[in-house]
Task: structure prediction
Amino acid sequence: MAYKFWRVLCHTNGGDLTWSVDLQEVVFLNGTTVLSTGGVAFADSSFDATTTPDKAFDANTGTSWLTDAGLPCHIGYEHSTDVIVTSVKLQAPYASRAPNEFEIQYSSDGLTWTSTLEGRITSTGWTANEIREFAVTHFDLAGNATNSLGAAVEKVNVFDWNTGQLLRAIVPATNGDWSTTLFSNNQYGVTYLSAGYYPLTHGPYQPA
Result:
C-alpha cells in the first residue's frame, strides 16, 4: 500500500545538548529510485531561513535542515503521488546531531502517522558527513476473490483487524486477483464485496 506522506521521527541524537538534529540529506527510495522530488518537504521547525526542511532534499551536502524544536522532532516529505518506500538514506554533518533513535513513519493525510515494521531504530556511532541507509520492511497481501459464478468480486476491503479502520479499497482484476503492500506489524482483515452476496471476511493476517 503506497502512501503520500513519509517522515523520520527523531527521538535522540548523538549528544548535542544545544542543537537537536541536523541533516544534510534525507532520501526516500524505492530500490535505487529517488522518490522525494516534485513534492513538498516539511518539518516541525527550522532554526532559520537557511536551514529549512527542503535543504535536506536538495541533493546538496553543503546545505542542511536544522531543527529548532528540541527532541523529539521530525522531517518528512509530501510526495506528489502515493509511493512505496523501500529504504531511507540519512546524512548528518555532525555526529553529535545525527539521529541515534528514530522511527520511519507514513501517513495518507499527514495527520495520522504509523511506524514501519522496524519500529524504533537505534543507530549510534556516527561520524561527520557519514551516509547511512535504512531498509523499510514491507510485505504483500494478495489473493484471488471470485463469487459462486466465477466472476471477480466488485471490491476487496483491507482493514485493521483491531480498530476496524479501512486501509484500502481494491478493485480486483477481471480474474479476481488482487494485492496490496503493507508496512506495519498489525493484524489485517480482508472483506470481499459482491452484489447479491453477503460480505465475506477473512483474517486476521499478520506479517511473520
Summary: The radius of gyration is 20 Å. The chain has two domains: 3-135, 139-205. Residues 139-205 form a domain with the Immunoglobulin-like fold (CATH 2.60.40.10).
